[in-house]
Each structure stands twice: as C-alpha cells, then as structure tokens.
Prior knowledge:
CATH class of the largest domain: Alpha Beta
Distance between the termini: 21 Å
CATH architecture of the largest domain: 3-Layer(aba) Sandwich
Bound molecules: adenosine-5'-triphosphate
Strand order of the largest sheet: 5-6-7-3-8-9
Radius of gyration: 24 Å
Shape: elongated
Largest sheet: 6 strands, mixed
Order of helices and strands: EEEHEHEHHHEHEHEEHEEEHEH
CATH superfamily of the largest domain: P-loop containing nucleotide triphosphate hydrolases
Amino acid sequence: xxxxxxxxxxxxxxxxxxxxxxxxxxxxxxxxSLAVPPGQVLALLGTNGAGKTSTVDVLTGxxxxxxxxxxxxxxxxxxxxxxIATRVGIVLQEAGFLETLTVAETIDAWRRFxxxxxxxxxxxxxxxxxxxxxxxxxxxxxxxxxRLDLTLGLLGGPEVLFxxxxxxxxxxxxRRNVWHLLRExxxxxxxxxxxxxxxxxxxxxxxxxxxxxxxxxxxxGTLAEITARSATAVSFRLPPAFxxxxxxxxxxxxxxxxxxxxxxxTHEPQRTLAALLGWAAGHGVELAELDVRAGSLEDxxxxxxxxxxxxx
Length: 312
Ligand SMILES: Nc1ncnc2c1ncn2[C@@H]1O[C@H](COP(=O)(O)OP(=O)(O)OP(=O)(O)O)[C@@H](O)[C@H]1O
C-alpha cells in the first residue's frame, strides 16, 4: 500500500482487504486493498473487464468475496446489510425499472421503502427531471434514465454512495450538472466510491484514484501523485534545415519527430527546456509553436495499462 490509503485505519468508511473474487475458474479481482476515509471520493479507473464492477458488487453486498474482507461503515455489506442499508446509496450500471411506470410513480414507489426519503419534487429537481415527471420510464432517453438512477440512489440522503459509471450516456452539460450536485453532497460529508471511464470525471471529483488492470491495482494515490509520475510533453517545430538529430543531449529525455513536430517527453521539464532554449539561442533557431504540457491522468492511465500488459 502506498499514498494515503491505510487499510487498517479504524476511520475508513469503505475498506477492502486483500479482496479476491473468482467467477468459476476466472479471477476477476485478484487481491486488492483500499480504504476510503470519511468525506473522501475514490475513483476506480480501469480498462474494460478490469474488475471495477465486480469490486463494487462485493461492496454493495451483491457478490460474496472468494476471499478477503470488505467493510462499509464498519459492517459486512453481505451479512449485515440491514444494519447499513439506510445509510448507503447505490447506483449500479443497470437499473431494473418498470418501463410502464412514470418517473414520478417510480420515485414514489422507491420512497415507500426508503426511510427519510426526500420529497418527490426535490428528487426530481436535483437531477433536472421535473419536466419529465409524467413520462413513462421506457420513453426516457439514456441520459434521463441515468439521472433517474442517480436520484434514486440519493433518495435517502446516504452517508456513503457507490456509483458505477454514473454519467455514461449523459451529454456534457448534464454531466457537469451531476458533478456539481455530487460536489455539494461531498462537501456536506458524503463518502463516495465511483467507477468511471472518464478521466475528466475523476479529475473533477476524486481525492484518490486507483487504476485497476486485470483484477489488480496497478497505480494508486492522489491525483497529483498519479499525474506527477507521467512525463511532461514538450513539442515544437524546427526550421527545415534542422531535425531532432541536431538537438543537444537532453539527459535521458527522448526526442522524436512526428508530423513535422519534435516531441520530447521529460521528467525534468525545467532542465530539458533550458537545454533546448540554450541550443536554439546559440543556433539562432526559433522553436516555433512551442508547447509544454504537464502529464495528465490519461497519460498515467495509458502508461499503467501498457506497463501491466508488457510485464505479464
Ligand atoms: N457473473 C460473471 N460470471 C463470469 N464472469 C464475469 C461475471 N461478471 C463479470 N465477469 C468477468 O469478470 C471480469 C471483470 O468484469 P467487471 O464487470 O468487474 O469489469 P469492469 O472493470 O467493471 O469492466 P467495464 O469497464 O467493462 O465495465 C470481466 O472479464 C467479466 O467478463
């Protein structure tokens, strides 16, 4: 374990210790440990089939672990579900709605078995579905259905929220509205574990990120810790008489030419830039369209997945 995660902390709201989950002879989750402190957001990223949903299924009591333990608010979500059910919100990938009920009827039905549920109008308003209240669920767009999923997960004002790809299918504006809503609830103290394929979503919401690949965690830490490990990309154009081979030695940074641009990946951007600018000044050369881009979460994700692939 690295970073701030401390799987033995008593304070963790969500805790996973050495979790394994097999489906027959296939191992979907291969020994992961994670902990999420109160009021924090952990984003679980990963390639398709990495084991993210399987992990959420164990945390929400839908799957029994093959080995290892999970605790949510100190309880086993499978055997002690009743103890914590009213304090936990769940938004899974596939919600089993009755397509013939209207949005309002669906919310009313859920309100009946959700203690302390928000009023229907508030639930509709939160996800901007007020004008769709009388529409049958089967006639909603994919993005509207997703927003209905979300408001049902938030109906009882949960302390802990599990979100499996919460904004898949949402247009950019609706996605931003959902992030805004979630941020307000997180500021009020809600703890969240979410899975997502959108790096921007993790950047917008998460305190901690864990990247999964083939059942294992291959990177974890704060956003800053994870992106700091990605190289900075420096790129520019050289005059026709010059090529990447003319550049000075860049102390470990690699220079390559692509589509007429020189691209340098460096873990020491200041040193690399000083060498490049010194060389350009000495040769009277302009580094045209000079661009310096810090390592992104997406770079870290791609490097993590590629690194795992080559090491197996
Ligand atoms: N009930 C099941 N029986 C057998 N294999 C399963 C079952 N559920 C999932 N798997 C397999 O386990 C692996 C992990 O699946 P999981 O849904 O947890 O991945 P994921 O990271 O959520 O993927 P995605 O990003 O595509 O949703 C996949 O190879 C999947 O095919």
